[in-house]
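Onboarding guide, step 5: your first structure request.
Type a short instruction followed by the sequence, for example:

Predict the 3D structure of this protein.
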Amino acid sequence: MSVTEARRVRSMADIRPGRLPFAQQAALMRLQLWLTGETHQRMLDFGSQAQAILLEYARSDGTLDTAAAYMAQMQIAKAWSDTFAGWSLMVERARREAASIPFGSLAVMHRNYVKPTARRVTEASTNPGSVFEPQLGQVVGAAGQRIYGDGLTLSGRIWRMDRETREGINRVLMQGIQDQSSAWDIAKNLEQFLGAGQDCPRWTSTRLYTLTKKDIASGDRRGLKTGEECKGQGVSYNALRLARTEMQFVHHLASDQVLAAQPWVMKEQIVLSPAHPVPDICDDVIAQGEGGQGIYPVGSVQLPLHPNCLCFKISVMQSDEDFTARMRNWMAGGSDTAMDQYAHMIGASTTRQVLEIDFLEDFAAQALGVWLWGGPEALKDRMGL
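The system replies with structure tokens like these:
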């Protein structure tokens, strides 16, 4: 393990269990912020490519004849195919990262809460490998099969977006030819159709890398989802709306699975985002919970409650005294189906192995630390870029 990795693991291990939901939400916001900047940058790059192609085929007066327009259209279509393929792959990886973050919380909880609660049986250490791979694959796969209100799955929506964008690009080009517009004006109209903000990549980079680790781990998300620079329109807006919706869904699906897997979690509590603007369904759900505080049985509420919902869940845990007594009974051979299921999930076949396993270094679990504190290169490496 490198020095950088060791520092990250120690930082994750230092997160207090009670702050995990806030750290997890901050990591998700950083992931979404990173994707926002990357999406705008890719749209800007494509716009620049299209502009260069149009100018290359323009006549001396700046316009394009029919043959030149056709050649330009073919090259621009190829450039879009490459751009969209890269963006789609990036979104798929971002979905997986969004689903991975909750498993980092579980890894921290296991190390900082479960293991210290019970007596240490042995000093031996095991390396469980990719413990969470089966669960992660199941969550991502299930999320991908979800049927939206329009009757399409995620793959169907991505295909539709690609098709509609191609058609829109062609309309801009053909309208420009029909109006005898200059190649420069056509490129500007295409830029408007893409709707990417020129200042968005720089703004997102500033927000990603200027907050301190302490700010982020404490749940400070100032500015992470706001800013006119990234408001976007057209293709950029639609692309991010699709990506964010899917990332939120798969993240909460994984969070629910992780909550349900923790025997010491008695209930869940819905928490409003600090950026919650006006009363809506989120306030109603919280008011209808136990004591008017948004407390429900685990798995009762499915987030997000609406598009761009930033609410999240925290766990209502069993008291330390009760959990300690429960762990002692289970380790002594007492019956506890929930603890048996937890042990099976983390790859432990005996009570002894539950105490030996430490999976902060599991690849899925590392997503929490990377998206909380990772610098530019760490994030690119994580996304395979």
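Each response can be followed by summary notes, for example: The radius of gyration is 24 Å.
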